[in-house]
Fold this sequence. Notes:
DNA-binding; four-stranded antiparallel sheet; 2 domains; single chain; multifunctional enzyme
Amino acid sequence: MPELPEVETTRRGLAPHIEGRRIQSVTLRRPDLRWPIPPEVARDLPGQRIEAVRRRAKYLLVDTAAGSALLHLGMSGSLRVLPATIPVSTHDHVDIAFAGSAGKPGRVLRFNDPRRFGSLLWQPLGEVHPLLRGLGPEPLSDDFDGDYLFDLSRGRRAPVKTFLMDQAVVVGVGNIYAAESLFRAGISPLRAAGKVSRERYAALAGAVKAILTHAIARGGTTLRDFLSPDGAPGYFEQELSAYGRGGEPCPRCGRPMKQASIGQRATVWCGHCQR
DNA sequence: AGCGACTCCTGTTTGC
DNA sequence: TGCAAACAGGAGTCGC
């Protein structure tokens, strides 16, 4: 499931292939994903040159002079750059096609999303899409640190894991990285956010940064394959300490990892190492 | 304002 | 073995 590192990996893989290219056509095989696809996407994108591919939270922004296409991968979405001759397969919902050069076939940016939790939206030039308003800081920015978390969390009674996954608090930390960060910082996911000390929030912010940075670096190894039709990488899965390891021995102390649902999310932690 | 519950969807896993 | 029910998951939205 794409979290921030996978979205950033996608952005880095995508950018060199589509930045500077002119869009020839847009094919929508569905009128909607999570939400209806706004008419500007098919109407205004063709003919535009892609100026940049940016990321904010888990959203990708494809910038043109007419406006920006806003892409979210949901939990099962993926983007690939392929030769336009590759046949579409199940759940290939959107193609953004580029003209080929002399003798070379054109390519398409193809959006596949089986569960359709993803979205394709439109941000007019000079505006900020409503979904991007009110988002918290980027976790890898200097705006995000222990003091920030400590100050914001005072009085909050929700579990610290729920707090950390709130996109208004900090963006890009989903279920996997919340579990991993809390394990690394030695904080119980059940603890009320407002009851975590400043020192422990410093450790937590550091853990978030370290884990995300590492995961992005690991994803980077797959960038060269971005043009191939192979499936998405599972680059980080074998390195997970907590996520998906309920009942297994704690990597630190060997006691069985606990599992429960916190805030409607499967959560794994060590009752001994995380307090 | 904060927070829990609900919702979307479909591939995979679990349970009978 | 086969089928159906349960589950997973990002994050917006609703209601208390």
